[in-house]
Predict the structure.
Amino acid sequence: MDPLIIALIGCAAMMGLILLHVPIGISMALVGVAGFAQVVGWGPAISLLASEPASAMSSLDLAVIPLFMLMGSLAAASGLASDVYDMTNALFGHRRGGLATTTVVASAGFGAICGSGVATTATFGRVAMPEMLARGYHPGLASGAVAAGGTLGIIVPPSAMMILYSVLTEQSVLQLFTAAIIPALLAVLFYAIAVQVTAWRNPEAAPRSEKLPFKDRMAAIGRAWGVILLAVVVLGGIYSGIFTVNEAAAVGVVIAFLFALLRRRLNRATFLQVMAEASGSTAMIYIMVFGATIFSYFISVTGGASFIVGAISDASVHPLIVIFGILLLYIFLGAFFDEVAAMVITLPFVIPVIQGLGYDLVWWGIINVVVIGIGMITPPIGINVMLLNSMYRDVKITTIYRGIVPFLVADLVRLTILVLFPALTLWLPRMLG
Amino acid sequence: EILRFSSFEPPVAHVTKNILTPWAENVNAASGGELDVQIFPGGTLGRNPAQQLKLVEDGVADIAWVIPGYTPGRFDQGTIGELPFLVPSATAGSDAIWSMYEQGLLGGDYENFKLIGVMMSSPNALASAAEIRNPADMKGLNLRAPGPTMLGAIDALGAVPVGGITAPGLAEAMSRGLISGTFTQFGAIETFRVGETMSYYLDMPLGATPMLIVMNQTKYNGLSDEAKAAIDQYSGRVFSDTFGQSFDQNVAEARERVLAANDITVIEPDDAMTKEWEDALAVSTTEWIAGHDNGQALYDAFAAAIAKASAAN
Amino acid sequence: MQLIWNRSQALARALTLIGFTGLLVLALMTTSDVLMRWLFQAPLQGVNDVISVVMAVVISACIPANLAMKQNIRVEVFGAVAGPRLKAALEAFSSLLTFILIALIAWQFVSYVTSLKVNGDRTWVLGWQVWPWWSAATAMLWLAAFVQAMVLITDIASLFSGPDVDARANDDTSSPL
Ligand code: NA
Ligand code: NA
């Protein structure tokens, strides 16, 4: 059989298994092995099931993921998220849309010490939602700010998604983290604008709160020293050139662990909870990595990827059309899969295309993470939205999706700007070497 | 017949683009359409450089570019090229190591594969952030571990070997002070952008990196005579010579570009300084000879082969 | 049955605890390496060697709990429109394929470890034998296969007796997103 046909059947089989509820990593690994066997033979194909998991499990690059996961879980367990919320509240709380702005900025701050968007959403779902609802915020605006703010967990470095991308495409994590700075600042700015527009159009959705006395505000800012210390050590250490990314993650774990100990937040139950959170997502990422790698070998051995690259370069369409085409494809796939899955599934085809068009893979990594962030708040599978809905059963899912709209508009504008002006992403990493 | 050739290096990198790809084209042409050697660059069949040999053993790839140093213990006799002050250039080193193989002096793993090429890189020198002129300057410095062969010498100098740093992580490790120096050559310095993070280059041949092009023996045996002839025509000494010359030329060109673009002090040692380093690193040679069966005979044969190759080129 | 299921869950949790304690120790070791390098210019020897072998054990130790709690990313669009019966069937199907994959990996790891032992693979700086560590990782993978077998049995049981037997918690806050 023509290898290209095998590739096509393989893709269809993978989609089919995924739609039948088989986990994405498992589907990719099984189809990858079976497809590889059709082209090369069963012996070599089965051998991939030892060599690829072994490569992933001993990779120092991937080792950063469990460390950042553990750091985020420990930081949340030690109450560092409430500290950062209180601090931003002291700064912005009394302004128009103050609590929603606070939520967004605090999510970005917490994002600087947590690599996961869902964890950020869950954390501020607990910390910020009750606060806003108690002050009479419209549930749509309140949950919109939390869900959209949660995406900052992966957009502000450190980010598990950027690490995953860097491992799968062999780009430098450090470069991705540096490239993410300006896009992350833009994200916060645009979300803040979205809050202002919403509050201006419907003042009742965001009642003002009274300004705290100066003394209390200073005290709240002072209490947040823990988060600031952790963020400065981890990100400051990485950017200033003191630590490698691996070391920063390790040091971050130790500091977060000390906080949890000294604040007496660690009992048996919370310790188990922290471990379960961090380990569950760690194993999940590793299983995705095995699956994606094996599937990509299958695709490359059939020549499927080079076929698509050839077809696109023969068609000689404008590169931007191809880029926007891929983004549309992601948004379309996002209706069926979540966007992380969409990214992992399509990387074997998309990366050669992006490279063939002469685009920078660091830039594409940031674009990809932004698209994943958008996918986290768009229907039908907006994982942040579904999570909030499960935490606050009386807030309807449609209310949340309606509350998301202004933030989504902000996201789409930001995405377009980042695509049209790659320099916004690439200037900093080039400056800093 | 399709032969899958795996390279962990990206398609645009020197060896893959200028040596392996033309080799595949030559073999395909010579086989009169019987062979279709396909290059899978950038790790598209296996991204872990340390697993390339396993790809050939498992039949995932038929041919692979292998750096045995990533899997200490395999193709062990070839580590002789890692010894300091022995390999002066990739050209002479590759010529010499192929002669050794041809004479049947290399055993073990070498007998289990069809070897298309047995080569040496250009010699590595010491690239560093700190100023290193004399062996005493190495005391307390972190050095990227270049493989087990030099560990004894590094220990003897009082330096600290740091393992687990991949070539792409080199620049980050240098700029963060995780290591202050590494044994490398300008080809790698350019590819992995180490130029911006280093300030000194101590220009001495401190050992080369052994490399192999390995083919699955069973696969080779199963080919027709015409296909075998097409492969043989471009393999062995021819391959090793082409590889060595091309490697040296690329390193020389990279050296000019890197030095033009960065502020790097190249330290050219005088005879006294060279002697000091030879003495300080001699322990690695002694250890190597003691650690291998027939160590002294292998060492003498390789030194003689190098001398002969250097004279011929 | 319920007892075996509870026991295997407890086992999975215990392994996670072992794994993540290992991770904490690695973090402490890396941190002291950084401090020693910074303050005294005297870094520890072979930190990366230790990380690369211990990491294999840490990661494989996380897999049983991940499987027991069904924490892998899945798309459940179809189940949302299907009836409970069909949903339970899909659940069992997905658990079966997961079991097949994990069992194949566990099986392949045995020959992988054997080859590591035969070839005498060692770590870079410290020269440690790597096969004992990978044997531990292999053992974890076999336990993972066992846990997944339990998951599969529970899923099949609930397919025939209705979905309520399924007592697994499904807390989803641990996604990497
Ligand atoms: Na983050
Ligand atoms: Na979505």
